[in-house]
């Protein structure tokens, strides 16, 4: 097994059969010990965070695969904190797609003069570049095309997949009396035909969930969802 990438929350290995193995760590994004799904630094470590994140990821990926949406997911080994996936070719150096049902986090910081905290946003989609040094800048569809990162057709597919996957996650949370405020996804091109599929993880660290108007921490979210 060859280590090909050391990320903030996972290590990525290439296996002899060509598949990738993601090992989930107990590192959580945030600043100064406070969780923030939008942060691009590791802010804290929580024992058991890696395994809980993997279990929730497996839970959602099985639902998403069942819905016929392409994903990289092959299997999960909970005991070892590992997930085996199909390798994907990412857009540029990687993009993140954010789906917003309510105004919180960076949306609120950017557009605070025009919206109130928690205001409904009706499934608004935006894309950022994965670029820690430049603080993951927001990018428009036109710039993505102009810079050769993705085509307009791919952008439309990305938006459509994001809304469909978001609905699956939102509905599952609602069954547990949780409300999904926003969520971050990653996508890549899979297989020889380059069809777009969901990659990376879907854990408590990628979303903001609320219960009775207050934010639910990642580990607690995972406990609620998996019990
Ligand atoms: N199927 C896949 N193929 C290629 N890269 C992937 C796949 N799934 C996830 N990745 C990438 O692997 C890395 C996972 O580690 P992570 O700690 O999340 O990294 P980061 O600090 O870049 O967010 C991410 O960069 C993610 O884009
Ligand atoms: Mg990541």
Automatic annotation (TrEMBL):
SAICAR synthetase/ADE2 N-terminal domain mapped to chain residues: 4-213
Top-level EC class as recorded in UniProt: ligase
SUPFAM superfamilies, alphabetized: SAICAR synthase-like (SSF56104)
The EC number(s) this enzyme carries: 6.3.2.6
One Gene Ontology MF term: phosphoribosylaminoimidazolesuccinocarboxamide synthase activity
Reaction equations catalysed: 5-amino-1-(5-phospho-D-ribosyl)imidazole-4-carboxylate + L-aspartate + ATP = (2S)-2-[5-amino-1-(5-phospho-beta-D-ribosyl)imidazole-4-carboxamido]succinate + ADP + phosphate + 2 H(+)
Metabolic or biological pathway, per its Swiss-Prot or TrEMBL entry: Purine metabolism; IMP biosynthesis via de novo pathway; 5-amino-1-(5-phospho-D-ribosyl)imidazole-4-carboxamide from 5-amino-1-(5-phospho-D-ribosyl)imidazole-4-carboxylate: step 1/2
GO biological process terms on file: 'de novo' IMP biosynthetic process
Keywords: ATP-binding, Ligase, Nucleotide-binding, Purine biosynthesis
Protein name: phosphoribosylaminoimidazolesuccinocarboxamide synthase
């Amino acid at each position: 097994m060859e280590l090909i990438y050391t990320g903030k929350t996972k290590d990525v290995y290439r296996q002899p059969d060509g598949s990738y193995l993601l090992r989930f760590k107990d590192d959580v994004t945030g600043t100064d010990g406070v969780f923030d799904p939008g942060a691009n630094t590791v802010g804290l470590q929580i024992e058991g965070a890696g395994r809980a994140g993997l279990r929730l990821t497996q839970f959602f990926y099985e639902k998403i695969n069942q819905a016929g949406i392409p994903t990289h997911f092959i299997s999960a080994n909970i005991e070892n904190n590992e997930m085996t996936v199909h390798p994907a070719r990412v857009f540029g150096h990687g993009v993140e797609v954010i789906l917003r049902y309510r105004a919180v986090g960076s949306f609120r910081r950017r557009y605070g003069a025009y919206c109130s905290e928690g205001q409904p946003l009706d499934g608004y989609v935006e894309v950022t570049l994965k670029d820690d040094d430049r603080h993951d800048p927001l990018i428009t569809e036109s710039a993505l095309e102009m810079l050769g990162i993705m085509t307009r057709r791919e952008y439309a597919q990305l938006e459509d997949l994001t809304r469909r996957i978001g609905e699956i996650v939102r509905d599952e949370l609602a069954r547990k009396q949780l409300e999904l405020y926003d969520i971050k996804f990653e996508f890549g091109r899979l297989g020889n035909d380059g069809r777009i599929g969901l990659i990376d993880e879907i854990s408590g660290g990628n979303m903001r969930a609320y219960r009775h108007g207050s934010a639910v921490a990642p580990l607690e979210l995972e406990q609620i969802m998996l019990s």
